[in-house]
C-alpha cells in the first residue's frame, strides 16, 4: 500500500488539472495561434506560466485504484500488476485465469 500522503497529493493534482483545464487550453491555443501578434502570444505564454504548476496534466501520476501503487500500472484496468494478479488469483476478475504449467 502506498503512502496516504502520496495518494492524496496525486488526487489534489488531479482536481487542480480539472479546475484549470479550460483556462489552460485557451491560453495554449492563443500562444500557438499564428494569426495573433507576437506580443499577444508572449502575454499568453506569461499567463500560462503564472498558472499553478500542479495544474499541468503531465504532473499527475497514474496510480493503482486498489493499492495506490505508482509503478507497474495497467491503463486499461487502472490497477497495478500486483493488484491484478491478486484479484485474478481470487477469481474476482471475469475472464482472467492465472497461468500455470
TrEMBL record:
Q: Listed GO molecular functions?
A: rRNA binding; structural constituent of ribosome
Reading the lineage from the top rank, the first entry is Bacteria
Q: Which InterPro entries match?
A: Ribosomal_uS14 (IPR001209), Ribosomal_uS14_bac/plastid (IPR023036), Ribosomal_uS14_CS (IPR018271)
Q: Name one GO cellular component term.
A: cytoplasm
GO BP: translation
Task: List UniProt keywords, sorted A-Z.
Answer: Ribonucleoprotein, Ribosomal protein, RNA-binding, rRNA-binding
rRNA-binding as a keyword of this entry, yes or no, is yes
Q: What does this protein do?
A: Binds 16S rRNA, required for the assembly of 30S particles and may also be responsible for determining the conformation of the 16S rRNA at the A site.
Q: Which family does it belong to?
A: Belongs to the universal ribosomal protein uS14 family.
Quaternary data = Part of the 30S ribosomal subunit. Contacts proteins S3 and S10.
Q: What PANTHER family does this protein's entry cite?
A: 30S RIBOSOMAL PROTEIN S14, SMALL RIBOSOMAL SUBUNIT PROTEIN US14M
Q: What is this protein called?
A: Small ribosomal subunit protein uS14
Question: What is the species listed in this Swiss-Prot or TrEMBL entry?
Answer: Hyphomonas adhaerens MHS-3
* Phylogenetic classification of the source organism: Bacteria, Pseudomonadati, Pseudomonadota, Alphaproteobacteria, Hyphomonadales
Amino acid at each position: 500500500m502506498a503512502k496516504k500522503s502520496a495518494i492524496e497529493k496525486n488526487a489534489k493534482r488531479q482536481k487542480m488539472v480539472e479546475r484549470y483545464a479550460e483556462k489552460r487550453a485557451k491560453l495554449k491555443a492563443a500562444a500557438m495561434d499564428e494569426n495573433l501578434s507576437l506580443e499577444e502570444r508572449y502575454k499568453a505564454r506569461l499567463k500560462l506560466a503564472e498558472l499553478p504548476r500542479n495544474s499541468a496534466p503531465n504532473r499527475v501520476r497514474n496510480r493503482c485504484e486498489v493499492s495506490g501503487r505508482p509503478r507497474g500500472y495497467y491503463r486499461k484496468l487502472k490497477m497495478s500488476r500486483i493488484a491484478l494478479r491478486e484479484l485474478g488469483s481470487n477469481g474476482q476478475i471475469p475472464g482472467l485465469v492465472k497461468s500455470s504449467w
